[in-house]
Amino acid sequence: MSDEVILQVKDLKTYFTVDEGVVKAVDGVSFDLHKGETLGIVGESGSGKSVTNLSIINLISTPPGKIAGGEVLFHGKDLLKMPPHEIREIRGNKISMIFQDPMTSLNPFLRISTQMVETIVLHQKIDKKAAKEKAIEMLKLAGIPAPEKRIDQYPHQFSGGMRQRVMIAMGLSCNPEILIADEPTSALDVTIQAQILELMRELTRKLGTAVILITHSLGVVAGMCDTICVMYAGRIVERGRTEEIFESPRHPYTQGLIRSVPRLDQETKERLYSIPGQPPNVIDLPDCCPFYPRCERAMDICKKKYPPVVSFENNQSASCWLYGKEAQNV
Q1: Measured over all CA atoms, what is the biggest interatomic distance in the chain, rounded to whole angstroms?
Q2: pTM
Q3: How many CA atoms lie within 13 A of 197 on its CB side?
Q4: Is 225 left (phi over 0), alpha (psi -120 to 50) or beta?
Q5: What pLDDT score was predicted for residue 330?
Q6: Alpha carbons 17 and 22: distance in angstroms, whole number
C-alpha cells in the first residue's frame, strides 16, 4: 500500500425524499483511499454502505435521491461536480464496480463477449479484435476454463461462482485504479466465497488496484482488508487498521459485531452473541447517537447529542461518548 491518496471522500451526504420524510442514507461520511489499499466498509443492512459507494461514482437516482453535500476527490478532482460525459469516462474505466448479484448485473440477452468487448472498446479506444483478445486474457486470469469458447456463451450458461468471476474480469478489464466490490460473495456458498476472495486479492495486487470492499461480514474483511470503516445509520462510527480494529475495537457497535462472529479457536456451549434490537429508522433521525437504544453502555448524553470523533493511537478513531471529554464531566 502506497502513501499516495487517490480518493478522498469528505462529508458526503446522500438523502432520499419519501412520503414519510427524508431518509439520510449517508450523513457525513469521510474517508481516504490510498493507492493499492484494500478498504473494507462494514455494517448491517441499511447502514448506508452501498449508497456511499454508488454516490462516489454518481449513480444515485434523482429523484428520489440527491447528493446533498460533500466532496469526492479523485486525484484532486471532485467527481460530484463533473459533467455527465466526464464522469462516464471515469466510471467503468478508472473506477470500476462489481455489483452484488452477477445475474442481475449481466444482460441475460447478450453474450459475455458482447458485454466485455463493448466496455473495453469504449474506454480503451482499441478495435473489437484487440478488445476480444483482452477480454479472453482477463477471463483466463479470472480462472474461467476454456475462455476462448466460453466468452461467446450467455450468462445463464455459467454457474453463480463463474458469473462472479466474469464480473471480476469485466471490472478489471480496463485496469482501473479503484475497484468497488459490493458484497461480491454474498450470493455464493462458503467454498466458492473463499475462491472468489482469493482471486480478487491475487488480481488486484498483481494489477496494483485499490479496492473498496462492501460487506456485512467481518470474516471477509479480516482476510482481505488493510483498513476498516464501520458504518451505522449512515455514518462511520469507527475506523482503523484491520489488526487494530480486531485487537481493540472501541465502539460498542464494533465490539458487538466482533462478538457475533463464530470463533473456531474457542469451545463454548453458549448461544452466539446477537446485538439486541434492530437498526434505527433513518427517516428524520434525531441528532443523537443512533446506537444508544441497543447499547449496553449508553449514558444520558448519548440520547441528547451525537458524539464527536475521538482519535486513538495508530490512526484509529471512533465516534462514541465513552471517550468524549464532555461525557466525562457529566
Answers
A1: 70
A2: 0.89
A3: 23
A4: beta
A5: 44
A6: 5
Looking at this protein, which amino acid is placed at residue 84?
A: P
Cα separation of 214 and 52, whole Å? Answer: 10
Taking only the tens place, the pLDDT of each residue in 272-287 is 778 888 888 888 788 8
The pairs formed by 13-17 with CB atoms below 8 angstroms and a separation of 24 or more are 13/67, 13/68, 13/69, 13/70, 14/48, 14/51, 14/52, 14/55, 14/60, 14/65, 14/66, 14/67, 14/68, 15/65, 15/66, 15/68, 16/64, 16/65, 16/66, 17/63, 17/64, 17/66
End-to-end Cα, the chain, rounded Å: 42
Q: What is the pLDDT of residue 307?
A: 93
Identify whether the C-beta of residue 310 lies closer than 8 Å to the C-beta of residue 321: no
Q: Contact, 15 vs 4, CB < 8 A?
A: no
- Check residue 183 and give its pLDDT: 84
Q: Quickly tell me which residue has 458485454 as its cell.
A: 115
* CATH 3.40.50.300, applies to 5-94+177-286: yes
Integer Cα distance of 88 and 58 in angstroms: 10
Q: Report DSSP letters for 174-215, one per residue.
A: T--SEEEEESTTTTS-HHHHHHHHHHHHHHHHHHT-EEEEEE
- For residue 33, the cross-strand partners are 7
Q: Across residues 296-305, what is the average pLDDT? A: 91
Q: Which of 269, 276, 271 lies closest to 253 in space, CA to CA?
A: 276
Side-chain-side CA neighbours of residue 259 (13 Å): 14
Produce one character per residue of 165-194: b if its CB has 16 or more CB atoms within 10 Å, e if not.
bbbbbbbbbbebbbbbbbbbbebbeeebbe
Stretch(es) of the chain classified as CATH 3.40.50.300: 5-94+177-286
* Cβ count within 10 A of residue 205: 12
